[in-house]
Design a protein that fits this description.
This protein has about 200 residues and is an alpha/beta fold. Helices cover about 45% and strands about 25% of the residues.
Amino acid sequence: EVYFAELVKGLYVTNYETAKALAELLDIGGKEQGLNILDVAGGSAVWSIAMLERDAGSRATLLDYPMVIHVGESYVEKHGLQDRYEYYPGDLEELELPQNQYDMAILANICHAIGPHTTQNLFDKVFQTLKPGGKAVIIDFVPDDERSKPGWPLIFGVNMLISTQEGDVYTDAQYRQWLGEKGFQSIKTHSLDSEVTVLVAEK
C-alpha cells in the first residue's frame, strides 16, 4: 500500500491532461451529465476529477486501498470536489460491489497490473454494478492484435511480466472478447494519444 500511495502522486501529474482529454472525448458535461461514477483502483482520482470538473451534476466514488484513498482524497480536496465524492476503501478483488448502482466505471491503468484472470473477474463485477446502459471505460496501453506495435505498450508489457506476478498488456481483440463474454456490447476503441487507448463498453 505504501508503494502505491507514493506511485499515485506521480501519476496524478502525468495523467491530468490526458484525463481532461478523456472527459472531453466522452462528452462529459454535454451528452453525459448527472453521472454516478465508480473510479476503480482510482489512485489519485485524477480521471474522475477531470470528469466532475466538466459536469457539476456528476458524483464519484473512489475505490482503492485505504492508504491510497487518503492520497486521492487530498487531490479531490485540492480541486474543491469533496462534496461530490464518496470513498470505498478495500481490495478490489475482495470487495462486493452494489448491483445496478453506477452510470460509469473507470478502469484506468489497472488491467495491466492484475493479470487476465483477475481482469475478467473485475469485468464481471463492473458489469453487475453498472446500471443498464452504463459504461465501462478502460484506459490502458494496448498493442495491436499481432503484438508488433506500437513500441511503448510492448515495452510496458515486458516490464509488467518482470515486475508483477501476472501482469501484461492486452490487445484490443482480447479486451473485446473478455468484455463480450461478460455481457458488454457496443464496444468502441479510441486513441487518446500515441500511447494511451480507451475502450468504452456498454451494459
